[in-house]
């Protein structure tokens, strides 16, 4: 991508309403912009990051054997009445009337929809197990949207649902999802802490959250340094000693990046989603559900990976792999930079090439640091004298000269 053609207008000023660093930097870098409270537009750079996160999640869901679906945002009131959540879910539903005066909800979650799909197709134990996932917009009627992408009213979410005939296998899948989630977050360069959690209005027998320690986090978790036990204060209250080993619990601020639930019979029983076992006996399907909010995950990455100059995107989620910068506009520099850009692009290396003529070297470097692409490569008359370019990893202090014809090696 030529930076002269990139739809991006970085800002020098920090937005007045931004309180957390991820909100400040994502807006300054022109990755996102707010429309109304808790609702954001994703601009080209922001969407590229979101798509990279989607790719990671999809790959790990496919590894679990899950199949992808796409369910409607507009949901039938009748389904929510079956589970008695039309009035009781918290935050409350966004509700609207269509032109026929029929009440419809904007979906904050999809348990009812998923169970409706399953009960129409599952007849016997031979139809089980299976798991379905989607990546789709959700709507949460939050009392207070805050922290930019950390707490939104409309956001993109991955939700996975599992359907099993026996509890042992259902819980085994729950454990497999735990491992998949740890892998997702590692690929996003995040160190997560697994903690026991409250099931809230989703419900179920068992629930865990994946938390990232961060001062700006709204969650409060208790961690045992002795045995590693962790729990959300919502779940166990402010106890001082570990229930597992009686060690001292330390309170930390954190951001929840994933939440998983073993639902058991909660929804299948309420909605009569049954199957016939080997003996011909009717039993409710056993379920689990597993969520990751993509924009919150994106913001958390920024909260952990940044410096005073801007964002430092991990390789797998960065909008581009390399930021190529041309300093002077002399013909030799221009030709060398264009040739390198074309050669790298042919090798499917994602390059943002700063070919802008109206920006000084200082302005180019400032934008480069703010946007936070993992590697910066500078071509100038000075470097060309040695047939080299200047390479710098984002976040590193030192630069090094590398031969132009060896640049591709750094992406193999």
Please characterize this protein's 3D structure.
The protein is 28% helix and 29% strand. The protein has 412 residues and is an alpha+beta fold. The chain has two domains: 21-307, BirA Bifunctional Protein, domain 2, CATH 3.30.930.10; 320-411, Rossmann fold (3-Layer(aba) Sandwich). It is elongated.
CATH architecture of the largest domain: 2-Layer Sandwich
How many structurally independent domains?
A: 2
CATH class of the largest domain: Alpha Beta
Judged by helices, strands and strand pairing, the structural class is alpha+beta
CATH third-level topology of the largest domain: BirA Bifunctional Protein, domain 2
**Overall pLDDT level:** 96
Low-pLDDT residue spans: none
CATH superfamily of the largest domain: Bira Bifunctional Protein, Domain 2
Record field, number of beta strands: 23
| Number of helices in the DSSP assignment | 11
The gist of it:
This protein has 412 residues and is an alpha+beta fold. The protein contains 11 helices and 23 strands.
